[in-house]
Amino acid sequence: MKLRPTYETSATILNRAAAHGSVETFRRLLESGASMRHRGVLALHAAAASHEEDRISVMEYLLGELGVDLEGLDGTDGESSSVSSHDICSTPLHYAMGNSQWVTANWLVGCGADPAAKNQFGMTPEDVFLDHLKS
């Protein structure tokens, strides 16, 4: 069976592949027509938040081979003017900490992720973790 992802389905399939699939799966989706340029593609965020094992290899691929921004915010297309009221605007480190993914969080910090980065609500990754504990 041949994969036929489209630009419109890119966010769903690439985010899911980052969270649950392998580097090879991700690569095949891109070769089959999925686009990293779709506004909803947050593959590094999805991998950082995932409870699946071995997300580091996917994140290494995203950062190293695809040049995904380690400090990229979700909910924007790179322009702060595009932030809407429902966007959280968090980094992958916020996602890892919010999902208690310690190995991933440590790896992201080791790669240069800023533990003091603030999301739209002024929360650091640590704040997100502490808020998660309350709920």
UniProtKB/TrEMBL annotation:
Give the InterPro entries listed for this entry. Answer: Ankyrin_rpt, Ankyrin_rpt-contain_sf, Multifunctional_regulatory
| A Pfam short name | Ank
**Superkingdom of origin:** Eukaryota
Report the SMART domains cross-referenced here: ANK
> Which keywords belong to this entry?
ANK repeat, Repeat
> Which SUPFAM superfamilies does its entry note?
Ankyrin repeat (SSF48403)
This one is known as Ankyrin repeat protein
